[in-house]
Amino acid sequence: MTPSELQTLTGASDACMADLEVFALRLAEANAVMNLVGPDTLPDIWNRHYWDSAQLLALEPAARTWADLGAGAGFPGVVLAILLKETPGAHVWLIDSLGKRCRFLEQVVDELRLPATVINGRAEAQALKVDVVTARAVAAMDKLLGYAQPYLQRGARGLFLKGEKAELEVAEARRVWQFDCDLSVSRSDPRGRIVSVRSLRRVRSR
């Protein structure tokens, strides 16, 4: 995918596209000294990381507040913050437990003046009320739902980017959790799935 193709798909402004270009540079620089993403994925950043993240906006176009759990390299959270930068009232919380990843995210947020807040802490310990809680490549669904539970209980919709084993992960998670769930095919990779979750509660042990 080219930048112009991504711009067409997302309707991003030229200013947002410029921010995405800067983010790509900062990610490449940081990735040379710490493991944020697989180096072999950077040449395909516009599809593999940017479009993969941006596609979530079409699923919740009215959402203004997002929490990205295990934000890591900034996918999907930083991409969402860039694309929502010109939207009044939009804000993204980037939550990660590792200090060095948070320092990288803070540098990007500050440089690009994004509507985002970086939180260095455990995802499940935050008392945030948001429209959507999201995550990518953080944990299997059973554990991920535990991290997301406080947000879902406060009314958030969960939109989780998963790989080709998404159906199996959902089935295994149902041993621990009761939840309403829909799976849609990822627009960036037909092998991937976006798992939409609402009304989560823990299964009572017998």
UniProtKB/TrEMBL annotation:
The keyword Ribosomal protein does not apply. GO terms for cellular component: cytosol. It is found in: Cytoplasm. InterPro entries: rRNA_ssu_MeTfrase_G, SAM-dependent_MTases_sf. It catalyses: guanosine(527) in 16S rRNA + S-adenosyl-L-methionine = N(7)-methylguanosine(527) in 16S rRNA + S-adenosyl-L-homocysteine. Keywords: Cytoplasm, Methyltransferase, rRNA processing, S-adenosyl-L-methionine, Transferase. S-adenosyl-L-methionine binds at G70, F75, A123, E124, R136. One of its GO terms (molecular function) is rRNA (guanine-N7-)-methyltransferase activity. Its EC number is 2.1.1.170. The keyword Transferase applies. It comes from the Bacteria. Belongs to the methyltransferase superfamily. RNA methyltransferase RsmG family. HAMAP family: 16SrRNA_methyltr_G. Specifically methylates the N7 position of guanine in position 527 of 16S rRNA. This is Ribosomal RNA small subunit methyltransferase G. It comes from Brevundimonas viscosa.
